Structures are given as C-alpha cells and as structure tokens.
Amino acid sequence: MAIIPQMSLFTWKEIEILGDLDRLRLVLDYMPDEAFMQNLEKKRGKGRNDYPVRAMWNSILAGIVFQHESIEKLRRELSRNGQLREMCGFEGQVPTSYAYTRFLKSLIRDEEMMDKMFETLVEQLLERLPDFGKRLVIDSKAISSFSKHPNKHETEDGRRDLDTNHSQKVYSGVTKEGNPWQKVVKWFGYKLHLVVDATYELPVTFKVTKASESDITEGHKLLEQMEEKQPKLLETAETMAGDRGYDDTKLITKLWDTYKIKPIMDIRNMWKDPDKTRLLPGKENVVYNYKGTVSCVCPETGKQREMCNGGFEKDRQKLKKLCPAKQMGVTCEGKAQCPVAQGLRISLSEDRRIFTPIDRSSYKWKKEYNRRTAVERVNSRLDTSFGFELHTIRGMAKMKLRCGLALCVMLVMALGRIKENQAEKMRSLVS
C-alpha cells in the first residue's frame, strides 16, 4: 500500500540553510511594515531626505539578519557591500552614525507600531499554519546588559545602564545515577519573557523587563497582554507548558478556569512535613505525593500500588483513577474489601497545583511537557542567529526595540518561507 508521509509546512531548518542575502530578501519582501513606514515618513515631513525612511529601515533589518552587534559594524558592511546597499535602497553614501541614532530614536517612539507589526505576523501565521498556537510554551531568557554593573552615581552618561539590575536563576535536577545537581546563573541585565508555539518553535508574545522581575508575575501579565491584544491566540491554545518557575496556583487556575488552556507546569515540593505521601481526603486507603502520583494501599497486605489513569471528566472537573489490579492483572489479596476497587474520582479543587486536567502521572503529561524544549531552541537562536550573545545594548528602550526587531524578523522569515513554498508543501507526496 502507498504510504503518504506527514508533511510540515515549515521547519526552522529551511531558514538555516539559506544564505544571509536570501534571508534578508524574505524579510524585506514579507514584513508587514507599510503602515509603519508611512507613519515614519509622515513624521519626517518635508525636510531633507538624504537617507530615505524605507532604506534606513531596511538596513536596520539587514543588521538583524547579518547579526551586527553595533551600528558601526552595520555601516562598515554597507560601505563594502554594494549589493546590500542596493537591496536596502541606498543610492548615495552610507548614512552617518548620527543619522542612525536619530532613526533608532524614532523607532523607539513608535513602540506601539512595532508591537502591532509583531501581532500582525502572528495572526498571519495563525491563518496559514495548521495547529499553530495550539501548544504553547512559556519561559524567560536572561540577557546581560552591555554594562557590567550598576551606575553608582545614578546619572546618565551613555556608558551606564540605569534601567536594569542583578538577578539569578537556579536550575536543578537529578542525574541518571540519582545524584542531585544544581546550576546557578547570575547576570546583570534584562529578562525576555516569551511564549512560543511548541510545534513550529516560533514566538507568539513577549515582554522585556529588568532581570529581577518574577517569572510568575510576568506570566500573569503575558496572559493579560494576550487577552487584550491577541484574543484569537488564547481561543486557539489548548496547552501551555512551563518549568517550575511558573508553578503557581493562581496561574495554573487562571489558565484552565478562564481560558480553558491545560497547564503543563513542572512542580516544586512545597510540603514541609517529612512524609513523602499524604492521605487523600475522604479515602482511607489512598495516598498521593506532591507530583500527583496516586496510590492505593491493599487492606490485606498494606502493599502500596500506583493507580492507573482513567482520564479527565471535563463536566465534573475530576480526574479518574482506576484499580491497578483490574487494569494490569495484578493479584491483590485485599481486592474484595478494597473501598476503591471500582476506581475513584479526584476533584481538581483538592489541590489545583497537584491535580491538573492532564494527569501529572500520565504519559500524556510527560509528552506535552517535553515540548517545552521548543522555547529553549528559540532562546538559543536568539543568541546564535540574532546576535544577542555579542550585543552592545544599554537601556530598556533600546533592548525592547532590539528584542522586538529580532522576534519580528524570526516570524517573517518563517512566513515568507511558507508563502513561497506553500503550493509545493500542500501537494500530497506518495512514496
């Protein structure tokens, strides 16, 4: 029989194999920037037009694509690369440093237009990519300031960064051998708070803050931001995954109760008592641990067995747990007198952190949580493909602009690739 392979409309590898000029062409051809350019030209008025708005803007985008960490490196590239100057739209000399300084200030003043452009790109991808926006992942990324420490005098001198502070993030886990490990990352700078699509590894919303801002606090704000500016995205989303930095009862509750998005958040051990398990309220022989694993205790032998997952009853807001003896064919001496031999239901309200619509102890939960690595790959691309490892940025306004530009470029590269290859990709292939 013929096998019809699953086709993907987009993978980031399609972008990686392109040269810089091909990537830039995608960006220039498909960026939804016409309204933005008209607004900038209107504000410029009838003054001198030595360096056209469109050409300046195109060169800024080129700096993102070519990973230039400073305007001076961009200017040097423009000076030596005639093809690049032509693509950007410059007919005369390369703009001065001062011209770029003024232009960047105008971009910063039009932050709302930049945000709108990002949202437009997300909307276009929602229309073109199947399943885009269904599986979301939330995370934060540390971005160091070009300044290495705070300004002691708290005065602006162009060499200090007054908009940021110190922070640290702790990562921990257990090795294959069972040994605990911990890694502490410290930095002086900012945080980029990101929500990305896990299927296509593309950003869908973002926020830039000082390094010390809490992931949980900003997680709530990102949801509010999406509700205000991207309601269609919230309607599309089915799951949202995050590490234990987003382990918060209110956030988990809001995701499900308000938006019907199933939370897939790693959990911290908040139990202070020495016992590894607790008795489930109303049950005499059922215990559970802080990770949501539910076990029954044999009335005859006292042997503890993990109960099987029976799914989630949405109308009742309850998780079903099934007798392991019945489901797995295990011999249980106390089955006849076991009060939960027919199974049981656990309401989410027992503990909203521990008991979630997708059972924490299920294979499905582990599978969905593993998709969280998508945001790590996006963060890695920001460093390696968009120049955040070697940037020269000081100040919150400049950092917001740089992040917004990089994320817009990431989205438009994907959109352009999809538009140009869609007819071919949609064709059924039989092998």
Description:
It contains 15 helices and 13 strands. With 431 residues, the chain is of the alpha+beta class. It has three domains: 13-113 and 415-426, no CATH class; 130-269 and 368-399, 2-Layer Sandwich (Nucleotidyltransferase, domain 5); 278-352, no CATH class. Strands 1, 2, 3, 4, 5 and 6 form a six-stranded mixed beta sheet that branches. A four-stranded antiparallel beta sheet has the order 7-8-9-10, with no helix packed on it. A three-stranded antiparallel beta sheet has the order 11-12-13. It is elongated, with a radius of gyration of 26 Å. The model is unreliable at 1-7 and 423-431 (pLDDT under 50).
H and E order: HHHHHHHHEEEEHHEHEEEEEEEHEHHH
Alpha-beta classification: alpha+beta
How far the N terminus sits from the C terminus, by CA atoms, comes to 10 Å
Helix fraction bin = 40-55%
**CATH-wise, what's the superfamily of the largest domain?**
Ribonuclease H-like superfamily/Ribonuclease H
Q: What fraction of residues sit in β-strands?
A: 15-25%
Main β-sheet: number of strands, strand sense, barrel status? 6 strands, mixed
Quick check: average pLDDT? 88
Count of alpha and pi helical runs = 15
What is the CATH first-level class name of the largest domain? Alpha Beta
The radius of gyration computed from the alpha-carbon positions, rounded to a whole number of angstroms, is 26 Å
Q: Tell me, what's the shape?
A: elongated
Query: How many structural domains can be distinguished in the coordinates?
Result: 3
Number of strands: 13
CATH topology of the largest domain: Nucleotidyltransferase, domain 5
Please give the CATH architecture of the largest domain: 2-Layer Sandwich
Low-pLDDT parts are 1-7, 423-431
